[in-house]
Structures are given as C-alpha cells and as structure tokens.
Amino acid sequence: MEISSKENTHFFSNNTILPMDRSSFKSESSASKEKQSCCGGIKIFLGALSFVYFAKALSGSYLKSTITQIERRFDIPSSLVGVIDGSFEIGNLLIIILVSYFGAKLHRPRIIGAGCLIMSAGTFLIAMPQFFMGRYRYEKFPSTINSTVSISPCLQDKNQTPLSALEKSHTKINAGCEKEAGSSMWIYVLLGNLLRGIGETPIQPLGITYIDDYAIEDNAALYIGCIQTVAIIGPIFGFLLGSLCAKLYVDIGFVDLDSITITHKDAQWVGAWWLGYLIAGAISILAGIPFWFLPKHLPKPESRKDSSTSSEQSKFITEDNKEQHKSYQQVKIAEMAKDFLPSLKNLFGNPVYILYLCASIIQFNSLIGMVTYKPKYIEQQYGQSSSKSNFVIGLINIPAVAFGIFSGGLIMKKFRINVLGAAKLSLGSSFFGYLLLLSLFAMGCKNSEVAGLTVSYHGTKQTTDYEQALFSECNSGCLCSKNDWDPICGENGVTYISACLAGCQASNGSGKNTVFFNCSCVGTVESPSRSSSAVVGPCQKGNECPKMFLYFLVVSVITSYTLSVGGTPGYILLLRCIKPHLKSFALGIYTLAIRVLAGIPAPVYFGVAIDTTCLKWGSKRCGGRGACRLYDSSALRYVYLGLTLVLGTVSVFFSVAVLWVLRKRSSPQEETLSANGERGTCGTKSRKDNFVNSDHLIQTTYWPEKETRL
C-alpha cells in the first residue's frame, strides 16, 4: 500500500508538473527567439557604429597629420592652423545640445546617417582649394632650375645675370602678387572642417546611448569598449595615410616631378595633403549608408523590461520617485523643451559629474595640444620628415593607446573593480603618465647649426640679433635678401639660409644635383679662410639626435599606454554616476564642454606658444610673414612639453577631488562590500537607501567583470 501510494503520488506529481514544463519550455523558446532578434539588431548597429567611429577617427587623425602641410601650402603660422583645427569643435558647438537632447527622442540611426553625409561633404570641401589655387611655388635660386644658363648665386654685379632671367623673375613675382588672393583659400579648409564637426556631432551621444538602451546589460560595456577599440584603428590608418601622402608632391599629376628641386625632407616640401581627404570623404559616405535602414527602436532584452535603470544605477541614484520614461513616439517638442532647464539643473547638481568634467576638460587641453603638434615637434626637434613623423605616430603611438584602453577594461574585469576603483585607476594612469612625460625634457636635440641664426659665420654660438647676424664680412659683397629661404649644406656641416648668404660664386648641375663652389663663408675648421663647396638642402642634425629620437619613441609609447589605461574606467564612471534618463544629455554636455573649452582653444594657444620659438619666418611673395622655416629646438621643447605637463598636473588635482567625493559619499559598509568584490556606490545618502537597494547589491556581484569586459 505504501508503495502504491508513493507511485500514485509520483504519478500525479508528474501529471501536474508536465503542463508547467511545457509552458515553461514555450516561454523559454519565445524568450530565446526574442533574445536572438534583439542581439541580431544590436550587433548590426554595433558593426555600423564601429565603422562610423573608424571613418570619423580616420578623417580627424588625417587632419592632424596634415597640419604642417596646410601651414606650408597656405603660408600661414601655427596659430592660424590651430584655429583651422579648432573649427571642428566649433561645428560641434553649434548643434551638440540640440542633437543630444532632442535627437535622443527622434530616429537616432537616421540622424547618425545624415551626420555622416554632412561629415563627408565637409571632408571633400577641405580638399577643394587644391583644384582652384595655382601650382605650389617654393623659394629657389634660379641656378637650381633646369637651365643651361650659369648664374652666380652671389650677385656682385647684376650684369652677371641675363636680362631675360631677371625679367622672368620679376614677372613671376608680379604674377604671384596677382594670385596672392589664392592664399586666403585656407578659409575653405576652415569651413570644411567646421562642416565636418557638425556632421560628427550625433555619432557619440546618440550611438552610445542607443547601444546602452537596447543591449543586454551585461554586454553594454563590452560593446562600448569594442567601439572605442575600433575607433583607435582609425587614427592608425589616418596617420599612415598621412605618411603616404606626405611623400607625394602636392602637385603630383599636374607638374613634371623631375623639375622639383626639393625633397620630402626639406622645410618647404608640401605633400599631396588633399588626396587623403578625398579618400576619407568617400569612406564617410559608405559608413553612413547602413543607418538609413536601421529601425528607430529595437526590442528590449528580457532582463531590462522590468526596470528603466541598470542594476547598478538603481543602487546609487537616490531619487524618491524615479521618473518614468515617456513614449518617444508621443512626446512633443514643447514638452521636451519644458524639461530642458530642470534636466540641466539636475545634471549640474551632481558633484561627481562636475568634478570629472573639469578634470577631463583640463586633461583634454593637454592631450589635444600635444597630439595636434606632435608631428611638428618630431620634425623640428629630431630633424625627421613629415612622412616619417606621421608613420611613427600611426604605427607605434596609436596602437599603444588602443592597447592601453583594452588593458584598462581588462584590469577592471580581472579584479572586479567598482566605480570607486575606476576613479582610482583613472587617477593613477594620469599621475604616472604625466610623471613619465617629465623624462622627455632630457631627450632633445641641439639646434641645427644654421649660419646667422643658431651659430655665427665663425662657428661660435649666436648671441646677437638674428636679423643683423645674417650678414657678415664673407658675404658683404653679395646682393642678398634676408627673407630668402633656400638652404644649402656646406662641407663644414653648417647650414646656410641661401647660396647667396654663403657667398657662393659659382654653381654646377641643376635641380637636386646642384653643387655650389667658391663659397666664401663655408670655411673649414682647419682652414677657415679657404673657400669651399656646398650642396642643395639643409644639413642633418647632430650625431646624437638619432639616438635621442629612439629614446623619445620608447618613452612616448609607454606614456601613451599609461595615460590611455584610464580611458575606459573614466568612461564607465561617467555613465554610471548619472541618472539613466539623462545619459544622452549628460554625454552631450560632456562632449560640448570638451569641444568648447579644450578642442577649440588648445590648438590655438599651443600654436601661439610654438610660434614664439620660431627663428626664421618665411616671407610671402608680396610681403608679409609666411610660415615658420626654422624653430629653436630647446625653446620648442620647453614650451611644448612644459605646457602639456602643467595642464596635466592640474587635471590630476581634479581627479583627486573626484576620488575624495566618491569616498565621502560611500558608506563604510559599501566599502567593505567593495573590498569583497562587490560593487561600491556612487551616490547613496543613507542606510535606508542601502537597505532598500540591498537586492541590487546582491544581483550585481558579477556585474563588474561583465560591465568592463573588452
């Protein structure tokens, strides 16, 4: 009887459980299908957004790589180039608030697609001046032109020069003055970069929040980390493209390259800067196509349907009554505008957000200024060509940044670091990164020996006024201009501004193979009175410079890696310390502040500071100061690195303040939980809140490793 009763009980239990199992199976099956649909949609968006990040990063980094090319092509100073570079941020400034606030409630994918089209139009506009300006003309002595007429560089007697040659020279100058208006076409470059900034505006605030809204909570940071990692690949290709184009002559396809008398190592060389913009514009068009076919909304994952907040956000965002999201389809523009000022007040009432924003603004001032003029610094400090400078940055520095971002996320995953720990990691990376930057002060090269600028004609260090020192007894009988820049290298290892100022009496050959003889100022140490020869082009830097350049590369890579380790932790700190319905708005304000207070002014005042170290300015054909031809290496090093280091140090102090506020707002109990591998808090106020949210503390035990996985 006992056995039969047990069997009956077992039988009935099976009968009652079976229907439940079937319904459970059905619900699991539907949930699985919904999950696959959701994941499929979000992964397509992820791939498209990654390609857009690649496209915008490529065009942005390519602009950085062409800074010196644009400066020489349009004959403008570094400060004006800084204004051109900052115009991108001005474009962001014009519409960033509107896009980030209103765009979040409209069709986000299509807004991103429209932005890509605008971005490509701006990129094409940057390249347009090349097709409307005249051919690039650099300063050169007539004897270096392919000609059978032998002209003395030192024009002691004007009768030495054939009348036809003089007339031809004057005709060229007059023609240059008539076309001098072409030099103002840098305005089109500025407008194109402005338009490019407008098009790029919706990509970050709308793209990141779209992923954070519809991705599975555990995978949100993984997707964001993937996008940031892919975005780093863009600058690699951008700088490599800049390196390739810098080797090609600016008027390639329009002039006979055999007639060019300068090489890509010359200070007057201008590469085919416009070619890369055509390529970048085409890539931007392709990147925007998929967004026109993506839906306005994706189905939310099953785990996020019951709550409008993430498990961690619901823990530290203390709000008596959590605001519910309105339907995006029914909301009106007037209703959205009414909530604008309260949302802004709510956002700026968050001390963590404000302090982190200040730290980011100052740090980005240092980083943007450093990156913008890094190719110029390498060229002038270590005597490298524009092509090699861009190649080194693209192939060595940028991968170090990518690896640093990846490592930052990996460290957070491995050690299950909470929000408080993310702030510590961000602070530590900044502190040690700028500490390493100090060592670069000792890794510089001495000034190139240029007669009349850095050394006297007798070989001693120059101390008198540069303008007056260009003339000496050895060239007193020559009719020379102090404004010329057509450097030659004497056999004594000293560079002379021109063959005339070197006192050269004769020349042989043509083009790049021209050799000057009987140069009265080119004396050797053993026999300073003996006239010597010289060749076209400046002399190379000292023998110790290649070694210093190698040391610079090693320290620069380590510094780039160290600074970028704090990138992902800082980004997670920003996202998790704001209310969920303000994420898009907060990112928009953050981006706006970085653009306005760092992206716009940093290239300008860095350029102004760098201009103060110029020793020799070029001159325009019709008068006026052109681009700088030679910088004081020591002064450039102290200005460039010193300004970067001072700004970085100030940002570290603000990062310390962020950490202090987080510690103050975290209770001892939460710090204990945090030490045991659970998530710390960012904004709890009382034990009551901790008790109410205790279930979230339990649920998010394994959140850190999934949140920060890259």
TrEMBL record:
InterPro entries: Kazal_dom, Kazal_dom_sf, MFS_dom, MFS_trans_sf, OATP
Subcellular localization, as worded in the UniProt entry: Cell membrane
Stretches for region Disordered: 301-323
Domain Kazal-like: residue ranges: 468-523
Main location: membrane
GO biological process, any: sodium-independent organic anion transport
PANTHER family linked: ORGANIC ANION TRANSPORTER, SOLUTE CARRIER ORGANIC ANION TRANSPORTER FAMILY MEMBER 1C1
Homology family: Belongs to the organo anion transporter (TC 2.A.60) family.
Stored NCBIfam families: oat
Protein name: Solute carrier organic anion transporter family member
Taxonomic source organism: Jacana jacana
Gene: Slco1c1_1
